[in-house]
Amino acid sequence: MTRRADRLFQLIQVLRRRRGRAVTAQAVAAELEVSVRTVYRDIRDLQAQRVPIEGEAGVGYRMRPGFD
Fold first, then answer.
1. What is the Cα–Cα distance from 30 to 35, expressed in whole angstroms?
2. Which residues face 53 on adjacent strands?
3. Distance between CA atoms of 42 and 37, rounded to whole angstroms?
4. Which of 19, 20, 23 lies closest to 32, judged by CA?
5. DSSP letter at 23?
6. Which residues pair with 24 in a beta bridge?
7. From the centroid of its chain, how far is CA 30?
8. How far does the chain reach from its first CA to its final CA, in angstroms?
9. In this structure, are residues 61 and 55 in contact, taking their beta carbons and an 8 Å threshold?
10. Tens digit of pLDDT for each residue in 10-43?
11. CA separation (Å) from 31 to 7, 50, 66?
12. 43 CB-contact burial (10 Å; exposed 0-12 / middle 13-18 / buried 19+)
């Protein structure tokens, strides 16, 4: 099982690789081998920490350019 901090870092990396294109929570969940619910929760937590993730459930998510 992956540590939560590692998973959050991996989630950021998935969004960075998309270079501004939206990716669905389902695609992220498949890549990280977690549930869609976990992706939604992790994205919400990252947004609360001011990580510039845009989007919404059912549409997709993307990282605003320039985030390191």
1. 8
2. 63
3. 9
4. 23
5. B
6. none
7. 12
8. 26
9. yes
10. 999 999 988 778 999 999 999 999 999 999 999 9
11. 11, 24, 23
12. buried
Q: SS3 breakdown of the chain: % helix, strand, coil, rounded to 5? A: 50, 15, 35
Residue 49 token pair: 């920490």
**54, burial (CB in 10 Å: exposed 0-12, middle 13-18, buried 19+):** middle
Q: Which residues pair with 55 in a beta bridge?
A: 61
C-alpha to C-alpha distance for 38 and 48, rounded to whole angstroms: 15
Contact (CB, 8 A) for 57 and 12: no
pTM of the complete model = 0.86
